[in-house]
Amino acid sequence: MEKNILAQMLQEYDSFTRSERKIVDYVLEHQKETQYISITDLSAECEVAVSTVSLFCRKLKLAGFNDFKLELARAALPGGSEAGGPEGEITAEDPAGLVMGKVLHTVQEELNNAYHMLSESAVIRAVDLLREAEQVICLGQGNHSVVALAAWAQFSTTSPKFKTIQDSHMQTVMLSTLSKRDVVLYFSYSGATHEVLEAAELIRGREARLILVTRYLNSPASAYADTVLLCGPNEQPFQFGSSAALIAQLYVVEVLLGEFVRRDPEGAECCRQSVGKALTKKCV
Fold it and tell me: Is residue 206 a contact partner of residue 135, using CB atoms and an 8 Å limit?
């Protein structure tokens, strides 16, 4: 039987450096928390460099930190999940009605968490940037490109300056031609993908503004952002982009839209009237 990552760390403990042992000690004591933490936050908790965490993962013959979290989650699987009430995880024994209740409970909890995570001052700063911008580009990668598309669809009914683009090549073209008065509204759960970091560097190079919607305040992309809007659940490593994360980000979109319209209701209503008249022609 192949040994799990916890057993491997214990077996190789003496061969690790002092900094790497600090990582092992933290992981063993906070096994569940580590499954949800970012590499930046783990390095801060252990007081080691981010590069040390990356090297540690490679020493364990893993592709990187996300691979490490996957192995950590796999090691915890034998313990199983709690079943029973509507607040538990979905199990094979649950009838459809209980599944419905558990999903509803999860969505309600994540919306509540999103509300408490979101900073009022960050929302005010973000809407200040949106209102001052000449154009606002809504972007996201993977599952979160859906949120970017939804944000553009919502805001485009209130102002013509909101835009989006799905093709990654054309995103690069658009970002490389930004002006100082442009703003990018970027959705990224981790804030640590190559795509978001490349986009952030382009945005900074053009002296444009970046509003980042992410789960982690200390994510690498946060260092480039003019304001960070925190939201999102603690995703399990095997979820690969949960609906709960999308729902939390859509909540942020609605908050930004509500505050944006509140600042200029007449302008938003005028734009919506034009859109409404045009769309009625599409109805049978």
Answer: no
